[in-house]
Amino acid sequence: MDVKKDVVKMEDNRTNIGCGFSSSPFSGIFDFCEGEKSSSLGFMELLGAGQDFCTNSLFDYLPQTPSMLPSLAPNFPNTSIMAKECSDYSLNQQPATPNSSSISSASSEALNEEQTDNKGAADQLEEEEHDQPKTKKELKAKKASQKRQREPRFAFMTKSEVDHLEDGYRWRKYGQKAVKNSPFPRSYYRCTSTACNVKKRVERSFNDPSIVVTTYEGQHTHPSPLMPRPTLTASASAQPSISTTFAMPSMPRTLLSHHYQQQPFNFCNYVNGGSPTANASGTGFHRERRFCTPATGSAMLTDHGLLQDIVPSHMLKQE
DNA sequence: CGCTTTTGACCAGCGC
DNA sequence: GCGCTGGTCAAAAGCG
C-alpha cells in the first residue's frame, strides 16, 4: 500500500511531513477509528513541524471524533503529532536501505490481517463476555481458536521527551520488550478500566530519539476518567472555554490559555488554504480562538514545505 | 493494603 | 524443526 511506503519513507528521511493534504483534516482518523480501512489517507501532520501546540488542534476536533480520539492526543507542550498511520506500523519494520521504498511484508500482512479480523470483532467480544474460559487450558484453546484477534490500530508519532504521553486515560503497563535494532525498549500498556480492552504500545524512534511512536489498539468503551468530554451543545452554543469544555489536567493551563488566546489559528485554512471545510461541515462546533498565526497559515498555503518532499504529488493535488 | 511497575518466562507466528 | 521476534502473563518488587 502506498500509504505505508510513504510513512516508511518519511521515517527514513527523518523528515517531518508538512501540512495535511485531505480536504477533511481528520478524515483519515475518522475512517480508521470507525474500523474502516482508508487507503486514501495514511498519515498527516496536525500542525507544522516545530510548532508546540498541535495537541490542541486535536482536541479542537474532539466533538466530531469517535470515542477513541481523545486518547490519541497527548497533552504535552512541545509535542508535535507528526504522523499517523492506519495499520500495525512499527519503526523497526523498515526497509534495509534508507532509500528503499519497499516495506516489510510483515507490516503489510498486519494490515491485511486486520482488514479481515475486524469484521467479527464486535461479535467476538460479545461472545467472550458471555463465555469466559474457566481454566488456563480453556483459555489457551480459546486463544488458539481466535488466532490473533485484533482491534483497529492507530499509530502516530509525537515529538516528546516523555515516553508515556498523558492522554486522559489510565494505563497499566503490562510488558516491556527490547526492540530489535533499537536501543529503546517498547512498552505495552492496557487501559485500567475493566471491560475496556484498549491497549497501546509506546516506543521511541531509533532514527530520532526525540520521537515517540504510540500505537493504540481498540476503542475505549468508557469516557475518559481524567478528562470530561465536552458536549456538542455546550460547545456550539457558547464560546468554548478551555477551562470548562477542554479541561486537560495534565497540561498546564497557562500553556493552553496562552495558545488559545494569543495564537490565532484556523486549522481549516492551515490545511486547505482558506476553505474552512472542517468547521463548516462539522458538527456546528465552532471556536473563536484559533491556534496558529496568520503568517504561519499563509506560509503553508503557498509552500508545502517538507510535505512536498514526502507526500506524493498526486496526493497534494487532491485538495 | 491496593495499585502499578518490573522483568523473566512463556507462547504464537513466521521465515528458513 | 529451529531460531527469531512480538506480544502477553504473572510473580515479585515498588510505591503512595
UniProtKB/TrEMBL annotation:
Q: Which Pfam families match?
A: WRKY (PF03106)
Sequence ranges of Polar residues compositional bias: 90-99
Q: Where is this region: Disordered?
A: 90-151
Domain of life per record: Eukaryota
Q: Where in the cell is it found?
A: Nucleus
Q: Which UniProt keywords apply?
A: DNA-binding, Nucleus, Transcription, Transcription regulation
A cellular-component GO term for this protein: nucleus
**Which ranges form a coiled coil?**
none
Q: Does the keyword Repressor apply?
A: no
Entry's Gene Ontology molecular function annotations: DNA-binding transcription factor activity; sequence-specific DNA binding
Give the protein family: Belongs to the WRKY group II-c family.
The protein's matches in PANTHER family, at most eight in alphabetical order, are given as: WRKY TRANSCRIPTION FACTOR 68, WRKY TRANSCRIPTION FACTOR PROTEIN 1-RELATED
Q: What is this protein called?
A: WRKY transcription factor
Q: Which organism is it from?
A: Prunus yedoensis var. nudiflora
